[in-house]
């Protein structure tokens, strides 16, 4: 069983500082939802408000339709997991998992049975009688998840739980966490500043900047149709050109920059005359010997060529000194240009989108 979490105009102020500004989002029952954003953007504050450790200074939180105002952390249908797992190192694994049940007066036999079930769920069927201190980092993480699930939360809140693990284990645990979430169907609210983690695991992602929720969407929507320049730059790479929209025809526009006039698409809220930036992904950019009919192009000089295995990153600067990146497939029959070569950075109108900067505090 899982429940939805509804945030309605949720705001949190610490004195005069607004850490979370008018956040509106409904996290669906059974969904894996991540809040993604840089350090200090308000992610932890949101999680603390959902779990009941802080009350919003304005707005409301409903879980499963129930207003959470005045309901303390222990009375909420939530469980919180964070980086510091707070397991008991010398206690057997199964007792760690069953700890919350013991507090609730569940018999030893039932506790043991439930712990064994949960250990199978997190793929540690033989660990029940080991001590926590004998486990690896990833195994401890699974025990912490099993312990949180033991009290049958409707909503699991996870605060960067993988950040203490090394890269390989972190990547492995991504798919583990996702699998556990699907098996239990509990609503997962996950916070992270790691875009790879958020994109790989989540059904939907909410991108935060400076307390403001910038966009909510599937990983594909966030990457392929960013709502503004902050989202486009925070998730993945982009080449950017500042300028002005000089004409508009439907969703297409002409955009004037110091590097040239481009045919582009228009992002949300951008119209005729707007000063903004055009964004183009490196994988949608190529380097051509000559300008190509119907495409945008900017004369550049190749500055650096980095072989990355499955692809090649080429950095090239334009006549104003701005550096742009092109991602080329690793194709031995088409070697990349040499450093110093002059080329035309080329991109299609449909891959160039004019976006506003981020939505900012107090104006969301
Ligand atoms: N109790 C508090 N009193 C005053 N300011 C606070 C308090 N808690 C958080 N803040 C401020 O609110 C902002 C958001 O903090 P929060 O911990 O939610 O960010 P975060 O996105 O989780 O960052 P990180 O990824 O670094 O943990 C920060 O500027 C922080 O300094």
TrEMBL record:
The keyword Nucleotide-binding applies. Residues 5-235 form the ABC transporter domain. It holds the Pfam family ABC_tran. SMART domains: AAA. InterPro entries: AAA+_ATPase, ABC_SmlMolc_Importer, ABC_transporter-like_ATP-bd, ABC_transporter-like_CS, Mo/tungstate-bd_C_term_dom, P-loop_NTPase, Transp-assoc_OB_typ2. It comes from the Bacteria. Keywords: ATP-binding, Nucleotide-binding, Transport. One of its GO terms (molecular function) is ATP binding. The keyword Hydrolase does not apply. Belongs to the ABC transporter superfamily. This is Spermidine/putrescine transport system ATP-binding protein. It comes from Labrys wisconsinensis.
């Amino acid at each position: 069983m899982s429940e939805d979490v509804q945030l309605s105009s949720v705001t949190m102020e610490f004195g005069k500082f607004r850490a979370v500004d008018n956040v509106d989002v409904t996290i669906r029952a059974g969904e894996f939802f991540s809040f993604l954003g840089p350090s200090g953007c308000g992610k932890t504050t949101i999680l603390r408000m959902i779990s009941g450790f802080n009350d919003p200074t304005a707005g409301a939180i409903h879980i499963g339709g129930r207003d959470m105002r005045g309901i303390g952390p222990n009375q909420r249908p939530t469980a919180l997991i964070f980086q510091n797992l707070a397991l008991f190192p010398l206690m057997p694994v199964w007792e760690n998992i069953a700890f919350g049940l013991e507090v609730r007066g569940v018999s030893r036999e039932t506790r043991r049975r439930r712990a064994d079930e949960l250990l199978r769920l997190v793929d540690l069927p033989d660990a029940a009688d080991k001590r926590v201190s004998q486990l690896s980092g990833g195994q401890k993480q699974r025990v912490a998840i099993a312990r949180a699930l033991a009290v049958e939360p409707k909503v699991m809140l996870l605060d960067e739980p993988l950040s203490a693990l090394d890269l390989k284990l972190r990547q492995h645990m991504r798919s583990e966490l996702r699998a556990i979430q699907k098996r239990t169907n509990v609503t997962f609210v996950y916070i992270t500043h790691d875009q790879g983690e958020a994109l790989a695991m989540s059904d939907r992602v909410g991108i935060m900047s400076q307390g403001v929720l910038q966009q909510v969407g599937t990983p594909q929507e966030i990457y392929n149709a960013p709502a503004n320049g902050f989202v486009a730059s925070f998730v993945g790479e982009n080449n950017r050109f500042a300028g002005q929209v000089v004409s508009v025809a439907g969703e297409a526009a002409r955009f004037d920059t110091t590097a040239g006039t481009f045919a582009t698409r228009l992002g949300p809220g951008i119209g005729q005359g707007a000063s903004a930036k055009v964004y183009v992904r490196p994988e949608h950019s190529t380097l051509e010997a000559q300008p190509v009919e119907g495409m945008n192009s900017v004369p550049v000089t190749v500055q650096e060529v980095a072989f990355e295995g499955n692809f090649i990153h080429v950095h090239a600067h334009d006549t104003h000194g701005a550096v742009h990146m092109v991602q080329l497939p690793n194709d031995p029959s088409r070697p990349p240009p040499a450093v110093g070569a002059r080329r035309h950075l080329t991109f299609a109108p449909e891959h160039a989108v004019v976006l506003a900067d981020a939505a900012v505090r107090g104006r969301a």
